[in-house]
Prior knowledge:
Chain A is α+β, with helices and mostly antiparallel strands and 166 residues long. Chain A contains three helices and eight strands. Chain A has an eight-stranded antiparallel sheet. In chain A, a hairpin with a 5-residue loop joins β4 and β5. In chain B, 68% of the residues lie in helices and 11% in strands. Chain B has a two-stranded antiparallel sheet with strand order 1-2. The interface between A and B is medium-sized, with 34 and 30 residues.
Amino acid sequence: MNDNLLFDFTVDKAAKKVYITREFDAELSLVWDAFTKKELLDQWIAPHPMTSKTKYQDFKVGGKRFYAMISPDGQERWAIQEYTSITPKTNFKMYNAFADKDENPELPGSEWDHTFREQNGTTTVSITIYNESLERMERILDGFTKGMKMSLHNLENLLATLSQRH
Amino acid sequence: MRRDIFQAIADPTRRAIITLIALQAMTPNAIADNFNTTRQAVSKHLRILTECNLVKQEQQGREIYYSLEIEKMKEIDKWLDQFRKIWEARFNQLDKLLLTMKKQKK
């Protein structure tokens, strides 16, 4: 499905920036919706086996999305995204910060910039993420790897149970 | 104190030091000769790099030689590769979602 779709991921350690470019086999309005509507975001933004849950979203400049990434054992990691700039179907910027369940942000966060463009039915999204500290990225990664290890562990248990039945 | 390894390599002088000693082990004086800065400043950079385990010291006679921990540098790349994988997984999920959305539109 995505064999010919461009995926570029580079990290500029000096500038503390991550650059991500990806092509999608869909028209711009669909891709824009998938990045900006909570009911769609929650369906793809959390890498399996993590899930995403948006408590509320107000997609306008100064508005926020308050959401959690949930690991297979039910642990919730909350974060707040505040939209700082929106040019419909072209670009949006936001400030992302971890938070507790009562919406108190843990600063510093990261600055995200998304640019969308369509050519011949293929939509390209370019994302730039600026982290004041790359150590923050390490914490993000820790959460994800824990979630993935947990699902592998669950699978091992399941396989063990299944093999005992034989 | 736990050092932020990425903070360590975010500094241009420290990156230049890493590039220098990647080729050969060097004494602090020899390293300092390459920079328009004080010997003290270079020592401070070397201390930070040592605390991050990015460089190792070796005593040879009266001199201390600094060299690069290649494995530690590889670790950083491996670590970044995990991020790439997370985004890959995300985008594969988005591909599926977009396909579903396209079908629904028809």
